[in-house]
Batch of 4 targets.
Target 1
Amino acid sequence: MSSLAITEDEAALYDRQIRLWGLDAQKRMRASDVLVIGVNGLTGEVMKNIVLAGINSLTILDDAEVTEDHLSAMFVVSSDHLGKKVAEASLNAIRRLNPLVKVAADVSSVKDKDAEFFKQFHIVCMSSVDIALLTRVNDICREHKVKFFCGSVFGFYGFMFSDLGTHEYAEEIKVSKSDTSNGPTAAKQRRLNSSNSKPETETVTVKNTSHFESFKSTLSVDWSILTPKQLKKTSHIYFITRSLLEFSTKSGHKPKMADIDKLLVQCTETMTNLKLDPSLLLDKFTPSMACTPEMSPVCAVIGGVLGQEILKAVSQKDAPHNNYFLFNPENNAGVVETIHSKAFLPPAKKSTVVEELIL
């Protein structure tokens, strides 16, 4: 475990962040050790964001070599690195972003790593299209209370998923002063507020707890029990993402233009297995938009959100996204979906005021 102390150099470098998030949040980020599995356009954006924010250490795990596909959306490697190990090739670009962060490369395979390896990190962020591998790593992290994130970009489509287990965090909310005051003065204030259209408010910091489900459990949802009205509330982008993951897992690679017909067959199979009407997906899906290499703007959007969620998790500041973030290229917007299995019944949410900041 690294020291929580902030040096003078760090205080100067992170001055703006400390003013925004607070010293305690920056100390928690400074003490966090992060593992990123799989180097691509998406994780390149994630690594940039978390290293600039000032984590303690970053370990990059990938046994692949740099190919032409890596060059389409990555700024951490160039054509000079073709044929070299991508984890090692990306080191210099990442280190230059923030010399105060320790950055290391591991060129072995994630499939060879056991639980002891993952236990040394606070955060594991994985980019893979192998559902079984994602499930295995998530299960290990969940057992050992390591916060887990994963994500991938398929052309213009993309997603991220988070499993933080039981996660405590603090967030600032605005409340009426009458809600946090007692006594005669408060009674007088409530009477004054009742005669005003805009009651006086104050900002308080509250402590909350969120409960997350595993990746495997979100894949076992029984969608057939939902009414059409309930089903309509779930973005069709989730089912597109699910189909893309299942296609990639079976084929061993993300879909390409030559795979469009096979991808459409997979979409029908995915929806049928979920006991849903395939037209719910096929009528809204443009497969060619998922069969291109990673698109840099999509990587930037999802990588920005994923990096933000990692920083929120380690700093315990602000409410996290629970549990999917999906990018919809049809309107160039993201949507947060909470996918829970029927068996997942989290405790009621409770808030506790830990600090009052009167504005």
Note: Residues 343-359 have pLDDT under 50 and may be disordered.
Target 2
Amino acid sequence: MLGRDTRDSYRTRRTWYMRAVGAFLDVAIQDTDGDPAVGRDGEPDGRWSALNRMVICVVAGMATWFCAAAVLSEITAELKIAEKDGSILTIAVNVGFLTGALLSAWLGLADRCSSSRLMAIGCTLAALFTAGLTLPGITLWVALLLRWAAGMSMAIVYPIACKHMAGWFKVGRGVALGAVLGAVVLGTATPHLVWALTSSAVSWRLLVLACAGISLAGAAGALTLADGPYSSAVQDCDPNAKNSRPPLGHLLRNQALWCVLVGYSGHNWEIYAGWSVLKPFFVQQFSVSDQLGSLSAAGAIGVGFVGCMAAGWTSDRWGRVLTCLVSLTVSGLICLVIGHVESFGVALFLAGVWG
């Protein structure tokens, strides 16, 4: 057991670190040991500052997701596989994310461990596994394993971020979660944007390393996050903690949960399948340049941040079920028709609405 002086010393160093990083991000960092002030509306005063910090961390932490898709031609040439087969690299990330999310839920990590520590670990591991793609002479199977591991790592970034922000908001929780989801969208678009701005000057390896570096910055930022007043008490990663895992049978019998899972899984199957080939679609279907294809993909994906915020706002006012139903319907219809569009402008518009 640590002595009191040692614990106080650790707390002092951590508070100094939080404020140092906060100054770098130009935001106010609140000490986690104090209770947040309450505003006139009864909600904690620091909730919007906490949301801003979380958005920055999630954008950075998810920057590795589509780094392979952004330089698909270059990576497939390196691995000596057909470009049409390169989509399996993104599929590996998605499968890894699914594996990590299920494992995290089964172990009850979100309820047993600090959100900031989990996110920092996830961002760091995603960065390391992504950087492994740049090693010379790797095979396709090694690349797939690295992408799968990166997806597993990101499973303790985005979902944990949603749980963390729920601890800061009761009123306006839909907007807060919409902002977190929008941050995922911006992080997904980041590799395309970086490649569009630097493709003539850097190699694909530098882009991948840059995305890994951005993820490491997200890990540093995550360590500054303070739990909100509505957060459930964590048990400091105690593996023997009781009631940390819900019974599997209870989850399997939860009809509402299955409805959410089916809707969410179907939507992600559709949207990420489309996003992973959005750049090649623009380049090959409309004969635009590689740079314009990357920029168009970044814009079409990144504009989804606005949609996420709008969906969060409408879910607080008109209900989450109606908002999800309309969003899923529009998204599915665009997925059906966009491949048949012959105009680049129309396709770009539809891709933006889709995002």
Note: Residues 1-7, 10-36 have pLDDT under 50 and may be disordered.
Target 3
Amino acid sequence: MTSSPSKQSPPLYDGPIVDAHVHYWNPGNTPREVSPLVKLLGWNLGLTNWMAKRIFPEAAILFFATPKYLTKNYLPDDYNAEFETTNQVKGIVHVEANWTGKDPVDETRWLESLQTNNASTILGIVSHVDLTLDFNSVERILQSHKEASSKVCGIRDAIMWHSNHQVLSFARQEHRSRLDSFRASFPLLEKYNLTFETFCYSNQLQEMTELAQAFPNQRILLDHVGTPIAIGGQFAGHAGVGENDTERLQITEQWKADIRQLALCRNVYCKVSGLGMPVCGFGFGEPTEEPSVETLVDKLSPLILFCIQVFGARRCMFGSNFPVDKVSVPSLDTYLVVYKRILQQLPRSDQEWIFEKTATEFYSLNKE
């Protein structure tokens, strides 16, 4: 009696990739939260990071785990240097990165001035505008973004807010997308053929569903699978989030229910990204050792595959969230292997959509 041959795994994805979530910055020469400190002490990054941990809010340090990726440059050459093996990334979508200058259009102009090539090529730009400004101001800023670069394809305005003071809130107030001023300006995005994406926490997913239902013709993108705080383990220690198994199970079940509801809105897409951020609670960030590919696949695959199941491959896209996720996965080569392993059992056509086609279609990257 002969044993049946073992079933071989399909080959890892070897096609083109669009990295749909990358941030470039140069804090010494462009306005960011850390810029004053970098200008003062940037000659010594060790001293800069030591000081940053002591002067920046605790919630910010907990969110990023370390300031070292925020205080040093991350530019096109740095992105290209991420790849030691054969590079399949044909370009990136740059997502606004908390430009603190008075004019958000300056970030778009700065991006246009960068020299990019190979993987670092900017295929699309997601710019920022504060949608709670008055209608005419929002329209003027949108027009200026479009004039500054033909690559501008979307707008991001973060609504992330949490009542726990140890969780970093990027928005100034709760329920920002429900404000009359926000809702009044929102139709301008459709007028200028711009996508909308936002950074929110999982406790705000119902708010996202309300927005999507109110504007069914607007293409909306959920960043980082809705950033489920502490879904992988306790975040922020005592008085933080997800302190015990029961609470984390509740977080998981609520996240799944809210993702299912949001996915019913056919105008909403999902970035399966950002799960390396410490706020998700997996404990990958410093000072722990770099996790293995096997560990990352084991921890991240249930969340990624769940989102693909409910949204469908044609409404899901890959994004590295580099350099923010470098705190957990320093190597982009490694991160790509993790995603390829997670998606390995899916049909090849689904992998093509997630790695390239969804982003290309959603952002209209082939418009020129």
Note: The CA atoms of residues 69 and 323 lie 7 Å apart.
Target 4
Amino acid sequence: CAVTTLLFLHLIKPLVWICRCPFYACRLQDFTRITVAIILYIPMLAVWTIVYRNLNSVGQIFMPIVLLIIVYMWKKVILGMSDRFPLVMAMFFAGFFIENLDDVFQTLVFPVVANARVGFITIGLRKFAENAAYILLFTKRWFLFRVGIKDTLKRFFTRSKDMPALPIFNDLSIDDRGHSFQRPGYLRRQFQFFMYKIISQVCSYLFFFIITPILREGINDDYYPLSESTTFFFRNEKNVSVLTEENYRNAVIFTAVALLASVGSGLFANWIMQRNHKPIYLQVRELYAVLFTSPTFILLIVLMTLCTELLGIAVVQYHNRIWFYKEDDPPAD
């Protein structure tokens, strides 16, 4: 799909861009880098999902931390690559698409948590800590600390003897991307990041509620280890554990609690921004009030969401040999 998109963009260049300047070529090059980074990111998530499914309860405790590190690194990479794009698109790639892939792939391991109490607590703590950290980024103390540590490290590595940088609280540029020491630009970026993060979490939990009952109770339940009636596909396999009614119930309960927690976090952050940073809040709200009336933008979000969900299902299918099962497979030794 990504390769097809890139080829199409190359082919339509003579039709949509008659200017001889290098703008189109440069943007296409940047988009190619982002696409390659995402293509490399997806196999890492697939490997993480498969490893999680095969670990015991002790090993599964550390896997959410591993995923957190992977996602953080890729978000920074994508954010840097998308600097030449408008901030809205940079937020979309780094703030929504990367996060949604993370959330969907992590949702896929809910039914295979070895120890419900420990496994769900570690997954839930990771998401709670992330959401709480983003809310703390809205505080003045954090911004002062950020300016201080960022300036200190910069002067240390560059051996600069300039005067220490000071935080800027005035909104000098509406187009500031949040990398500078201007607090309004930083708040705009982090607020958008957090809202995309909450939307991503909600979509992934709804994905779980929609797709797992189909795989568990549908006409193809024999093909997935999400149902206790799985017999056809795994009848020649040894040491195959299927999802019991109790484990599935635990997964559903956790997902419901996590969904409510995500919605609550989003509403709380929205209240904080509206109460403490109303000018910034109104700017972001006005921007997205326009974007969410655009059919193109809405279609982009829908397509990206469907893409991540289909990728997630594909990983389950591949891991369970859905695509290359043979009726005459020999029995396992």
Note: Confidence is low (pLDDT under 50) at residues 232-240, 321-333.
